[in-house]
Write a structure and sequence with these properties.
Layout (H helix, E strand, L loop, with lengths): L3 E10 L7 E10 L4 E13 L8 H6 L1 H4 L5 H4 L3 E14 L1 E9 L7 H8 L4 E16 L2 E6 L5 E7 H11 L10 H14 L4 H11 L6
Antiparallel strand pairs: 1-2, 2-5, 3-4, 3-6, 6-7, 6-8
Length: about 210
């Protein structure tokens, strides 16, 4: 039987990516001396919001997710961010491998709402590993499952996530709207002689007494 330990060394933006991706560098250590021929690795990354403090400004941004601060004792719970997978080449002892973490800028996604609400500091993450290990068995290859309790914490700097967003969406973002809402905005824009939907939304906010910042 193999015995695996996982640790996350770093997480940073993937350069020259067409879509917003982060790259997580992992160290995988096999502590029994067994030869690992290959590994089909799966990973769920969760956000663990209880592992950090929040300013009053951040509290306002998190209201939609967790409610007022007096309710956080029951609402501030761990939630999934994303899933990813990788094929790890064979190794003995330990190896360094990478996981691609595809990100989204969609404000309707819970994790995006959370990330956008943070001003600075770190994002408390938990990496949960599973998958299949291929080893040398008595009749050729042996197959084992990665135990479900294999996990590793990591504190991702908020600025790192902002970097990958700026790299792919400079000075812009994406908001999901219903088709009828988009058509209404287009009509409003045309009727006012505005140049774009952004101006239409800004004018509507100004008319409602909201300050667009």
């Amino acid at each position: 039987m193999t015995a695996l330990d996982f640790s996350v060394l770093s997480v940073g933006p993937e350069p020259f990516a067409v879509t917003p991706n982060l790259i997580a560098r992992l160290r995988i250590a096999e502590t029994t001396g067994a030869v690992v021929h290959a590994m089909a690795l799966r990973c769920q990354i969760r956000i663990e919001p209880r592992r950090r403090r929040y300013t009053e400004r951040e509290e306002a941004g998190l209201l939609d997710l967790f409610g007022p601060r007096e309710r956080w004792g029951t609402t501030l719970s761990t939630f999934p961010w994303l899933h990813t997978s990788a094929v790890v080449p064979g190794f003995t002892g330990e190896c360094i491998t990478e996981l691609v973490l595809p990100c989204t800028y969609d404000f309707e996604v819970t994790a995006s709402k959370y990330l956008h609400a943070l001003d600075d500091g770190t994002v408390p993450l938990g990496f949960l590993f599973s998958g299949t290990i291929f080893t040398k068995g008595t009749n050729g290859f042996g197959v084992e499952q990665i135990p479900w309790d294999r996990e590793a914490p990591f504190d991702l700097p908020v600025e790192t996530w902002r970097d990958v967003v700026r790299q792919n969406f400079p000075s812009s973002g994406w908001v999901r709207l219903d088709h009828d809402t988009i058509e209404a905005l287009v009509r409003f824009k045309a009727a006012r002689g505005l140049l774009g939907l952004d101006q239409a939304v800004t004018e509507l906010l100004d008319g409602a007494g909201e300050v667009a910042t």
